[in-house]
């Protein structure tokens, strides 16, 4: 018996938690990604799409951050930004060509980007996904951008 009368397994983990983790080891945490729900901008201006995250692991050299975009009314999502091995890879052929800027810093748990020269075609949903091996389990986070006339 452990504290508060909770039955303990052979490895000293409360028995109710052992089923949640492989081989009876202590449970692991998932990575958590956060974005605002909505962001607003005006045509011709710029907007920061904030993405922060929490990981139970040290920030790995293998951390990756990916942004996807799904245009308003579209079913398809496209990859517009990827950060891996300390290097940002920015869309250089698509709709965000020469309009996107990496302002994040993974060491500060920040995966933010800036979209410059906003246009109505930028209306849609942006998804930030972070993987920090071995912490790769978790949900991405979405922010919807609304672009209005000045």
Automatic annotation (TrEMBL):
Q: InterPro entries under this entry?
A: Ig-like_dom, Ig-like_dom_sf, Ig-like_fold, Ig_sub, Ig_V-set, Myelin_P0-rel, Myelin_P0_Ig-like
Q: Does the keyword rRNA-binding apply?
A: no
Which sequence ranges form a coiled-coil region, renumbered to this chain?
A: none
Where are its TM segments located? none
Name the Pfam families on file.
V-set
Q: Which residues form the signal peptide?
A: none
The UniProt entry lists the main location of this chain as membrane
The cross-references to SUPFAM superfamilies, in alphabetical order and at most eight, read: Immunoglobulin
Residues of the Ig-like domain: 27-144
Bilayer disposition of the protein: Single-pass type I membrane protein
Q: Which domain of life is it from?
A: Eukaryota
**Cellular location of this protein?**
Membrane
Tell me which family the UniProt entry assigns to this protein: Belongs to the myelin P0 protein family.
Q: What is this protein called?
A: Ig-like domain-containing protein
Tell me what organism the protein belongs to.
Callipepla squamata
């Amino acid at each position: 018996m452990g504290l508060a009368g909770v039955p303990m397994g052979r490895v000293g983990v409360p028995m109710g938690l052992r089923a949640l983790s492989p081989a009876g080891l202590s449970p692991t945490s998932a990575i958590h990604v956060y974005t605002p729900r909505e962001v607003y901008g005006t045509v011709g201006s710029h907007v920061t799409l904030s993405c922060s995250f929490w990981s139970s692991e040290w920030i790995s050299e293998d951390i990756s951050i990916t942004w996807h975009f799904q245009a308003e009314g579209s079913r398809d999502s496209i990859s517009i930004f990827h950060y891996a091995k300390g290097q940002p890879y920015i869309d250089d052929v698509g709709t965000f060509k020469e309009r996107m800027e990496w302002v994040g810093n993974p060491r500060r748990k920040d995966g933010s980007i800036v979209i410059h020269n906003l246009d109505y075609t930028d209306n849609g949903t942006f998804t930030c996904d972070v993987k920090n091996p071995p912490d790769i389990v978790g949900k991405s986070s979405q922010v919807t951008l609304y672009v209005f006339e000045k």
